[in-house]
Design brief:
Blueprint (H helix, E strand, L loop, with lengths): L1 H27 L8 H29 L1 H5 L6 H15 L15 H13 L1 H21 L17 H24 L4 H4 L3 H31 L5 H30 L15 H13 L1
Helix pairs in contact: 1-2, 1-4, 2-9, 4-6, 7-9, 7-10, 9-10
Length: 289
Amino acid sequence: MVVSNMIMWFIATLGVAATVLLQFIPWSLGYTATIDVLLSRTLFWYFGHPLVYFWLLPAYMAWYAIIPKIIGGKIFSDSLAKFSFVLFIFFSIPVGLHHQFTEPGLDTTWKFIQTVLTFMVVIPSLMTAFSMFAAFEITGRKKGYTGLFSWLKGLPWKDVRFLAPFIGMLSFVPGGVGGLINASYQLNTVVHNTIWVTGHFHLTVATTVILTFFGISYWLIPHLTGRKLTKKMNNLGIVQTIFWAVGMLIMSGGMHIQGLLGGPRRSSYSEYAGGEQVAEWGWYKWLKL
């Protein structure tokens, strides 16, 4: 898992390194008069989209390697876990072009290929979801719980080391669905360069990844220091988890709604969807509908 993440890092950074070394620096020193903006953006997004996985894959690593220890079980399939990370290398590195679907300088054939490749990223994510919930069910049934869903009772819901990453896993479901909308050549035109994209990011990274890191920190720090997680700290961690999850739900939900109303991604003011009217009556109109 670590090797896959590092391979992705080295390959993806070639894009941003190329545009900085071959375009920005020569231009800043006066050796060239202009910068090829389209090429620069393409090289940046070749790096920019895999950048998200530099955070997400460590969370996946924690799900596979640490969460089973916390619940008293074991990973469902070691080979399945390894294969999912290999697939991330092939599918997640080249798909940054879907951030440029509205750019006229790029051929539509390449945009279609990027759509297909981005959809393929769903495969290792679904493999991870299957592997994790299979591990949860096996562990619950080993504890004596029978029935279709009674094994859920065998999971340590009052342990922040499990609860926080689990909520993170659940939040990745709507985050992933939003990613498919971003990756769709047709649907992307509705949300492109709106704050919808930022809302999607706050579901996948600011919720899924951060909550996983919260929960794993409550396991890792005592593990490294030889100390024990007290009941008081565990309860405070649960409060922290709930506050963060609810806050991110409100924040990302608002961003998604405002994005559908045309709110821009990177501007304090614009004429998108009527400009000031979006800020003044956008929420009211949405709630009224």
